[in-house]
Each structure stands twice: as structure tokens, then as C-alpha cells.
Amino acid sequence: MTPAEILDSLFPAGHDVTTDGDLLFGRARFGDGIVHVVGATGRAPIGIDQAIRLSAAVLQIASSDDAAPILFLVDSASQRMSRRDELLGLSEYLAHLAKSLLLAEARGHRTIGLLYGGSAAGAFIATALACGTLVALPGAHPEVMDLASMARVTKLPIDVLEAKAKTTPVFAPGLDNLVSVGGIATVWDAGTSLADQLQTVLATPRAGDDRATLGAERGGRPAAARIAGAVATAAQG
Amino acid sequence: MSNIRQSWYEAGARERIAALVDPRSFAEFVGPECRETSPHLGIFNLPAQFDDGIVVGSGSINGTPVLVAAQEGRFMGGAFGEVHGAKLTGLLRAAKALGRDVVIAFDTGGVRLQEANAGEIAIAEIMRAIVEARLDGVRVVGLIGGRAGCYGGGGLIAGCCSTLIVSEQGRISVTGPEVIETNKGVEEFDSRDRALVWRTMGGKHRTLIGGADVFVDDDAAAFRAAATAALARPAKFDAATLAAEQARLERRIARFGDMSDATDIWHALGINDPKAIPDMPADAFATLAAQYRESADDAR
Amino acid sequence: MEILHFDIAAPMPAGGTRKMALVGVVASGNLEVLVERGDAADRCAIEISTAAHGFRDLWDAVVADFVGRRAAGGLRIAINDGGARPDTVSLRLAQGVRLIEEPEA
């Protein structure tokens, strides 16, 4: 689905979301209230120039008292890989964007990531994965690193990696694998009303970071919830 | 402690913790005897390590109780796997519950590719846990000066800390030099040009642009002293903090966004002889930096 | 991974009271050695996990040399091997035994 199709299905009562290059900003009417919309679209990399505009928008929403949810549409590449972005401290810009989303959430705005295309590596962490709830549309294709690059770094032939990817969801790219490790809460049905599915998410209160528990239930991340719990228990013992 | 200077760069994770905390104060959580190793490395016929490359526990620094974590950069490049990441997440959640400050000695290449999806989510969980602890008034102090630097998701986690202490060796970046070169070509970044790597990502540059707060020599005692001071700073994290960070990051792009090399930025900061910076001894550099640098002023 | 087990007579009992000692890291050409107290004071149990398959005889020789020369009785030793040479293995084993005899730091 295109961003326009997604927004039309999500917000039949209308919206004023506008594009600014590969970014989206705006608001929409939803039920009795509104939903804030930000987006990183067009399969574009996220560098310092994109991150700082997204964080500005998120912080402005965070400082408002409307307690309206933020919907973050994501179809990006990885972080921008350039000498200039690293020279100027890309890690700070991406962390700042993530912190802005987490602050908005702490101040009463539900943050919902909607992954409808790609995202990868640091860009994925700073956008979709920094939201309180992450949902995806079928066909979304998140990845930490593509298999070809992974083959270079691990010095394993790509066909060996492809064979291993069939036996475990823990390393290979793809929506099913990210669902299995608990990174994505739900995959929506593109054939029915997205508004109804968003309403369902908003009607379900969020109780802490449950991604490790989901990963254990789904089998993709067997140890994380247990280990984090064991450390936290030992520290408070 | 002895009077012999101990290199932070050369030390392992356990030696760094021993140098940081008060003698006999450290208690490890889920230590190597628990044998909580990676469930995934065997798929790649890679040997596990009993602590999965991170040591977490409690101790005191100059009598102040803290939670402490140290990554082992020699094992899998200090990368975040499922267990490795979960140990840090658990520690940070305890920090929030206890209202106790945390010191993290980073030494990481980022996500461990053999368990990339688990590592990626772990980084997101850690960042959330840091922010939730900081919102409750917990300090999270990051120390960066190890072999592996602080790359990938490690750089994003560092960006969530309340104070960052770096040595010259403490490189902070998202994409590493080799990965930029592989993806974008040697014209974009020549990863074999070590001087370029250091001045683009190293501790001196990060200190000068406000990406790090305190510059120290490659000396474990200096890291300990700086951590002690950081733990005494006000713990503030709220909307005003992030508004100030937004402003300083916007200002950085406005001031330096058209510059292509660190030496141009250092010159723009008012430093007359930027080419002398890389070879400058730590104390001389710290004095110079104090005069010319863009301080983050706790806006992080 | 290949897992090797040795449980052999160790005439010299280990000293000290420390429960556990850890030396080395898992890296190319290196290994970690976790030393703990076992059951029988005259035995030494060693478990090795290594990615380098087919070197049982070499490990056998290194282990036999170790228990013959060091106070390894009553110890339970676990090794994660990153492809270390025999001299490195011997060094780490000696360091592990020495560390577990030291007072708690």
C-alpha cells in the first residue's frame, strides 16, 4: 500500500498529512479525537537532516497537552551511511529521535509505529522500534543487515546463510523473523479497515515493554525475558 | 589499586570493573558460573562465552552504590546478542526500580550479526529502559575507550546516557568505516585511513562537538575519577532536556553542516592549529577543548 | 562444536577457598577457562567446547600434562575454546588454578 492509501483507510474522516520530501507530518481526525502522524517514507535513508526534523515534530507533539496518539509510518532504508552524517554525530541524532518518542509516550501520547515497507539497522531502532507498539502491514520487510553484507562480515557464503535462515528466525531479514523475536506486535490485515485495527490497538492498554515475552512465546527469542528477569531479580535481592 | 597506570583500552571487561568500583564491593549478577551462554552461536559453529561478553552487577564507587556493566570487546567484538542485551536490560530495569545510578563501560561493534534480530530488539529494549530509568531520576553514565569503540546500536544506546566519558580511543559512530566503504565506496570513506577514522569518530572530535561530555586519558583511574564526578551531577531528564538537545543538534547542523572534515569544524570552533589536535597529549587537549568546544551542557 | 570430557586422577589437591575463577576470553587463538570446585578431591573434571574438531589427542596430552604438574585435584574446569594453541591452553589452565588459590579480591 502507498502512504496515501494507508492514510485514507486509517482516517476516513479526513486528514491534513502532507509530505515534505520523504517525510510526512500532520494530523487526522480519529473517532472523537485526533491522531498525530509523522512518517519516514520512500525507502529513503535516515540521516541527521531527516532525524532532526522528525524529532522536532515529535517534541512539539510531546509538549502539547492533547494526549493524542502518534502514528509513525515507516518505510525507510537504513541510517544514511555517509562520512558527513557520522562526522556530525548521527548516533546522537538517532538517539535523540528515539528519546523524543519515548518522552512523548511518557507524557501520555501512545506511540504506534506502522511499518509498511522497509527499515533497517539504526534507522529501524530510532523510528519503528522506539514506538510503544509496533505493527506492520503484510509485505513489510525489516532487516538489520542484508544477507549479502552479513555474508561479507561473517565470512560465510551466502548460500550457507540462506540455509541457516530456514532453521532459525534469529538473524535473517524479513517480517516473519522480526515478528518471531517479538519486535513486531501484530501484522495487520491489509484487506480490512485499518481504522478498525488502529482502534483495536488504541483500545488495548499498553503494559510495559513486552517484546521479550512475545519473543519467548513465539520461539524466536527464547532466553531474553528469562535472563533480564534473572538479572533484575538478583539486583533487587 | 596500584600506582601503576592501567590502560583502559587494553583492559578487559572484568579488569575495567575492578578498576572502577571500590575493592571487594562488586557482586556479579548471572555470572559465568550460571553458564547463560548464547543459544544461537552454535548454529554457526562459533564458541560461546560463559558471560556472553558482558559483565553486570552491583558495587560502589567512592562509597556510592551503583549498578555497573562492562562489555568485553574481545569476544565477538563486544556485540549485542540476545543474552548479552538482556543482561543489560535487566540491570537497567532494576536501576529504575531501585532508583540507583548505572555505569556502563561500552566496548562494542553493535549488533551481533549471527543473532541480528535478537540483538536489534535488545538495543531497542535497552534504550527504552535507559529513558524510563532516567525519567525517574537515575543517572546512566557511559564510558567509552575500548578496542571495539562504540558502534552501531551501541552508539544509539550511548546517545541515551546522561553523561558520556571518552578517551581518544573512544570512537562513537553508527555505521563503521568498513561498512560505509563497503556500501558507498572508498571515495566516501577510506576505512584504511586510520587518521581519518580517529578524527571523524574518535573521542577528541566527539568532545569538541558536544557528542561527549568529559575527555580523559587512556587511564583506568581517570575513567573512575570522571565517573565519580558524573555521578555527583544533577540527574535531569525531561521535556526541557530534549528541547535543549533539539536546539543544540539543530545548531550543530547550522554551524558545521557544510563542512566535510573534522579539521574544518575544529577551525570553525576557533582552534588556530586544528592539525595539531590528533597528536596533542590528553591534558593539553582537555584544556584546549574546555575553551573552544561546543558543550552539551547536560542536554542529552 | 565438539564437546570433549575428561575426568582423570589428579594427585595434587587444589588449595585456597575461592569458589570460582575465570581467566581468558573467547577470541581467535584464545580461550576462557572457568575453574570451580568439584566433588572428589583426587579427581579433576574438564569439559572442553571447541570449534576446532578432531583434536582430542592433543587435548588429552595437554590435560594429562596439566594435572601432572599443577594442583588440580578437586577442580571442575570448563573451557570455551576459540582455537587456542596448546601452549596458550596450558598457560590459561595454570592461571586458572593459581587464581582459585588466591584470596577473594
Brief summary of the model shown:
The complex is a heterotrimer of chains A (237), B (300) and C (105). Chain B has 300 residues and is α/β, with parallel strands linked by helices.
Question: How would you describe the overall organization of this protein?
Answer:
- The complex is a heterotrimer of chains A (237), B (300) and C (105).
- Chain A is built from 11 helices and 9 strands.
- By secondary structure, chain A is of the alpha/beta class.
- Chain A has a domain at 3-138 and 188-206: Alpha-Beta Complex (2-enoyl-CoA Hydratase, Chain A, domain 1), CATH 3.90.226.
- In chain A, strand 3 (33-46), helix 2 and strand 4 form a beta-alpha-beta unit.
- The model of chain A has no long low-confidence stretch (mean pLDDT 96).
- Chain B has a domain at 13-172 and 212-236: Alpha-Beta Complex (2-enoyl-CoA Hydratase, Chain A, domain 1), CATH 3.90.226.
- Helix content of chain B is 40%, strand content 11%.
- Chain B has a 7-stranded mixed beta sheet with strand order 1-2-3-4-5-6-7, with helices on both faces.
- The radius of gyration of chain B is 19 Å and the shape is globular.
- The model of chain B has no long low-confidence stretch (mean pLDDT 97).
- Chain C has helices spanning 56-69, 86-101; strands at 2-9, 20-23, 31-37, 43-50, 75-81.
- Chain C is globular, with a radius of gyration of 13 Å.
- The longest helix of chain C has 16 residues, at 86-101.
- The chains are: A alpha/beta (237), B alpha/beta (300), C alpha+beta (105).
- Chains in contact: A-B, B-C.
- Chains A and B meet through helix 2, helix 3, helix 4, helix 5 and helix 6 of A and helix 2, helix 3, helix 4, helix 5 and helix 7 of B.
Layout of strands and helices, then pairs:
The complex is a heterotrimer of chains A (237), B (300) and C (105).
Chain A: H1 3-10, E1 18-20, E2 23-30, E3 33-46, H2 48-63, E4 70-79, H3 83-87, H4 90-106, E5 111-115, E6 118-120, H5 121-126, E7 133-136, E8 141-143, H6 147-154, H7 158-165, H8 175-180, E9 186-187, H9 194-203, H10 211-218, H11 224-236
Parallel strand pairs in A: 3-4, 4-5, 5-7, 6-8, 7-9
Antiparallel strand pairs in A: 1-2, 2-3
Helix pairs in contact in A: 2-4
Chain B: H1 13-20, E1 27-28, E2 54-61, E3 64-71, H2 82-98, E4 102-106, H3 116-135, E5 140-144, H4 153-158, E6 163-166, H5 177-184, H6 194-201, H7 203-209, E7 214-215, H8 220-230, H9 239-256, H10 262-268, H11 282-292
Parallel strand pairs in B: 3-4, 4-5, 5-6, 6-7
Antiparallel strand pairs in B: 1-2, 2-3
Helix pairs in contact in B: 2-3, 6-7
Chain C: E1 2-9, E2 20-23, E3 31-37, E4 43-50, H1 56-69, E5 75-81, H2 86-101
Parallel strand pairs in C: 4-5
Antiparallel strand pairs in C: 1-4, 2-3, 3-5
